[in-house]
Amino acid sequence: MGILDMFSPDIGIDLGTCNTLIYVKGKGIVLNEPSVVAVERGTNRIVAVGTEAKNMLSRTPTDIIAKRPLRDGVIADPDTTEKMIKYFIQRVFPKNLFFKPRVVVGVPTCITKVEENAVIDSTYKAGARQVKVIAESLAAAIGAGIPITEPAGHMICDIGGGTTEISVISLKGMVVTSAIRIGGDEFDDAIIKHIRNIHNLIIGDQTAERLKIEIGNASPERTIEKMEIKGTDAITGLPRRFEVDSVEIREALMDSVNIIVEEIKKTLGKTPPELAADIVERGIVLSGGGALLKGLPKLIAKETGVPVILAEKPMECVAIGAGKYFEIMQRNIGSSSVYESLNL
């Protein structure tokens, strides 16, 4: 380890479609903001970033555009992404920092080399001294406390905003991995389409997200929850209120949820028998914001016959794991196990 590595801060970034999280070694999660940037039309001048910019989505005047520079877990607008990362890093570190940080960024395995290079270039231009990109599922496994250095099979399923990544990890490496471009955003889109098609009501992304979080579910529940929403009548064009229940939202989500479940089954089917036996004993760990959908662990366990564990801080796993990557890979000591805490 060089002198720069000793004094340079290590940071992990979960550059998500919905939210960007930054973890700093020794400090924990220091930033959690929506991956949204508001720019001035014509000049492309940054008006707002993060939470402030998200509040402007669909509410901006004609001279301001609020947009998400990432789609399906990858960079769709490199210039805006670079500005967003630079803004977030400068929020975390002072501009006059002598030692530039080493940065590890979690990315989906389904991205192309061009998309990966866009992440690296944007992070370097944002002020990093060294940039390393790693698979989101590997970062999530480290962040969830899975002992990835052990010669045993561990399965992680990270459901982010734009992608879902499922991996079997052993001895610091991914033995089997699969990634699909379905995640929390797809859940929101499914709700929007369902409400439009069934009730002729047009709702926005934020209303769909609230429905998903508050009454969304993947498994039937004993009590039926209801929620009132407001939108635009697709026929009259006038504002209208409407009450939706949790049964209807579950029906709207099932196609997307079933695709994720089938992908988990396929990944288990490709897993070597000895590692598969480990997974049956230890369970599948779920991480990512999409894993918080009520009833999802129960549904996956039922469909696969394998125990399912929700990580302690599912939304923070990728950022935490990215921040701890250098430390974990440079020593043969696993982090504290999520399984030990659950006596599995």
From TrEMBL:
<dbReference type="InterPro" id="IPR043129">
    <property type="entry name" value="ATPase_NBD"/>
</dbReference>
<keyword id="KW-0963">Cytoplasm</keyword>
<protein>
    <recommendedName>
        <fullName>Cell shape-determining protein MreB</fullName>
    </recommendedName>
</protein>
<dbReference type="GO" id="GO:0005737">
    <property type="term" value="C:cytoplasm"/>
</dbReference>
<dbReference type="Pfam" id="PF06723">
    <property type="entry name" value="MreB_Mbl"/>
</dbReference>
<feature type="binding site">
    <location>
        <begin position="161"/>
        <end position="163"/>
    </location>
    <ligand>
        <name>ATP</name>
    </ligand>
</feature>
<keyword id="KW-0133">Cell shape</keyword>
<comment type="similarity">
    <text>Belongs to the FtsA/MreB family.</text>
</comment>
<dbReference type="InterPro" id="IPR056546">
    <property type="entry name" value="MreB_MamK-like"/>
</dbReference>
<feature type="binding site">
    <location>
        <begin position="289"/>
        <end position="292"/>
    </location>
    <ligand>
        <name>ATP</name>
    </ligand>
</feature>
<comment type="subunit">
    <text>Forms polymers.</text>
</comment>
<keyword id="KW-0547">Nucleotide-binding</keyword>
<dbReference type="GO" id="GO:0008360">
    <property type="term" value="P:regulation of cell shape"/>
</dbReference>
<dbReference type="InterPro" id="IPR004753">
    <property type="entry name" value="MreB"/>
</dbReference>
<keyword id="KW-0067">ATP-binding</keyword>
<comment type="function">
    <text>Forms membrane-associated dynamic filaments that are essential for cell shape determination. Acts by regulating cell wall synthesis and cell elongation, and thus cell shape. A feedback loop between cell geometry and MreB localization may maintain elongated cell shape by targeting cell wall growth to regions of negative cell wall curvature.</text>
</comment>
<dbReference type="GO" id="GO:0000902">
    <property type="term" value="P:cell morphogenesis"/>
</dbReference>
<feature type="binding site">
    <location>
        <begin position="209"/>
        <end position="212"/>
    </location>
    <ligand>
        <name>ATP</name>
    </ligand>
</feature>
<dbReference type="GO" id="GO:0005524">
    <property type="term" value="F:ATP binding"/>
</dbReference>
